[in-house]
From TrEMBL:
It holds the Pfam family FtsX. This is ABC3 transporter permease protein domain-containing protein. Keywords: Cell membrane, Membrane, Transmembrane, Transmembrane helix. It is found in: Cell membrane.
Length: 396
């Protein structure tokens, strides 16, 4: 009986076209809501992963910091390289400075690095420096800083360091001119306008560092979460390893919160669309009151009647979910494969819309939609079994 009644009640009713229209709107509403939700989550996850990859490169998987007085020695660096051969290490000296060119001033972070070691762990630096070197007071500046100061390769840039020297009756900040030999582009304007790389020996001379002393070590690791713990167990109390995710915890917490809020808001589209399922089924029940009462009087169980209307709702809802899933996956592929939406590259680091759909997000979307459709189908199905048989047959 269920197999006979479900297709019958799903057919377009010429006498009551509004009922069929509600069912069609419910189908389309769920499909469009699911499609929008899938594409929106793919975009959010794509931007999340894109920023994560860029921050992973510019902040380094792991950074080892030394005590601000003791620092890190060359012998400790060699010891780490011998004991952790699965990782790559690049020592550095860092200092805050003010970059000046002409009348322009910009706050900067200056890193003194060994370029051979740095190129092994930082692809942005490697692509920027190419085959050039920074010895004899050369510098690698971010493209944002280079464009702001209108610098060309070979121009000079003055760095005013926070370290000061006594001079006569006053204190004078350390200043040094560096030659611009190349530029890099990380895709993140905050780094491109503030980061400057110079040779570690040159910066050590300017800041009067002892030979073989560093501020810290940049570390490349394929599994930074585990390797960070390994390093901290091995390092002495004057040194500590910190992961890149710990340096940007607030940023990723904000992204995760935004993604969750977007998921809840867009899931409401499916919830609103499911109301059409409820209204469509309730109108079908009211329109078929005589048939339902007759079937119950002839011995049909209430369980079978409930199944009929529950299956009708599930057919509409599940059909909408399947169609919306197809549209969402197709839309994700289309937007990710072709430059349909152009983004400003100077803001987002790429003109292509990043699309990366997480399997976990997809499962949550489909399961959430099925739960909403199931609950929407259950109430009208239960209502169909509460018809008063005697009163309906007597009056209708």
């Amino acid at each position: 009986m269920v197999k006979y009644l479900v297709p019958k009640y799903l057919r377009f009713d010429k006498n009551q076209p509004f009922i069929s229209l509600c069912a069609i709107l419910a189908f389309l509403g769920i499909s469009i809501g699911l499609m929008v939700l899938i594409i929106a989550m793919a975009i959010m996850n794509g931007f999340d992963k894109e920023f994560e990859r860029k921050l992973f490169t510019m902040n380094y998987p792991i950074t080892i910091y030394g005590h601000f007085k003791a620092g890190i020695t060359d012998s400790e660096l060699k010891d780490l390289k011998e004991n952790f051969k699965d990782m790559k290490f690049s020592p550095y000296i860092s200092s805050q400075a003010i970059a000046r060119s002409g009348n322009g001033l910009e706050g900067s972070m200056v890193f003194g690095v060994n370029m051979d070691d740095e190129k092994e762990i930082n692809s942005v630096v490697k692509d920027g420096i190419k085959d050039k070197n920074l010895t004899k007071f050369g510098s690698l500046v971010g493209k944002g800083l280079k464009d702001e100061f209108l610098l060309d390769i070979g121009d000079k840039i003055t760095l005013i360091f926070t370290k000061i020297d006594p001079g006569g009756f006053s204190l004078m900040p350390k200043m040094k001119r560096f030659e611009v030999r190349s530029d890099f582009s990380s895709g993140l304007i905050a780094y491109d306008k503030s980061y400057i790389y110079v040779d570690i020996n040159d910066l050590a001379k300017v800041l009067s560092y002892e030979d073989g002393k560093f501020d810290g070590i940049h570390v490349y690791s394929k599994d930074p979460f585990k390797d960070k713990e390994r390093l901290n167990e091995y390092l002495p109390g004057t040194m500590k390893a910190i992961g890149w995710w710990e340096q940007n915890g607030n940023f990723f917490s904000a992204l995760e919160l935004e993604k969750r809020a977007l998921f809840i808001v867009l899931m409401l589209i499916i919830l609103v669309a499911s109301l059409n399922i409820i209204s469509s089924l309730l109108m079908t029940v009211m329109n078929r009151r005589q048939e339902i009462a007759l079937l119950l009087s002839l011995g049909t169980s209430k369980k079978e009647i409930k199944k009929v209307f529950f299956y009708i709702g599930m057919v509409i809802g599940a059909g909408g979910i399947a169609f919306g899933l197809s549209l969402g996956l197709f839309g994700t592929w289309l937007l990710g494969s072709f430059d349909i939406v152009n983004l400003p590259a100077d803001v987002y680091g790429s003109s292509k819309l990043p699309m990366e759909l997480s399997f976990t997000d997809l499962i949550m979307i489909v399961v959430g939609a099925f739960v909403i459709v199931t609950l929407s189908s259950y109430y009208p199905a239960k209502k169909a079994t509460q018809i008063d048989v005697l009163q309906t047959l007597r009056n209708e």
